[in-house]
Amino acid sequence: MDEEESLERAIDEEVVILPYDAKWQRIFEEERDRLLHLLPGDFLAVEHFGSTAVPGLAAKPVIDILAGVDSMSRADELMEPLCHASYATSMEFNASLVGRRWLMRWAEGRRTHHLHLMVYGSREWDQRLAFRNILRTHPELAQRYEKNKRLWAAEFRLDREAYTAAKAGFILQALKNAA
Length: 179
What we know:
InterPro entries: GrpB/CoaE, NT_sf. By secondary structure, the chain is of the alpha+beta class. The protein has one domain: Beta Polymerase, domain 2 (2-Layer Sandwich). The protein is built from seven helices and four strands; from the N terminus they run H-H-E-E-H-H-E-E-H-H-H. It has a four-stranded mixed sheet, sandwiched between helices.
């Protein structure tokens, strides 16, 4: 399989939820260290977020990384160097995003990492970390989230965008209840 075929497979792969794997934290740390070494001084913070950052929570086995920058123009400047550092992206998709840029790493036709570039300390930055922290400190909520994620993954197995959209209401309600 060539690189283009592998990338296409990664983009079209189905939504699969796997049991928690303690290796996810180490995989994040290795990638964080690699990014900080490749682009020293470019990130104000690099955080592990999403379900793989919550001990015990089942998840898609894709490491979500939040990299804080000082501006969206800086995020845009980093897109090309990141693409030269084993990331891929869709400029068309990124053009539709407000307040963040998205890239992915993949290997053997499957996604391994999602990298989200956001302004450090922005509302969006804070919300993503707040939801992670809520799940880490409220196991009963994390269990409900996992149960729902399994249902959404079954319903939207071949539609990652619909799966992501399905999670949005749960996330917003959890943030509202925590406020």
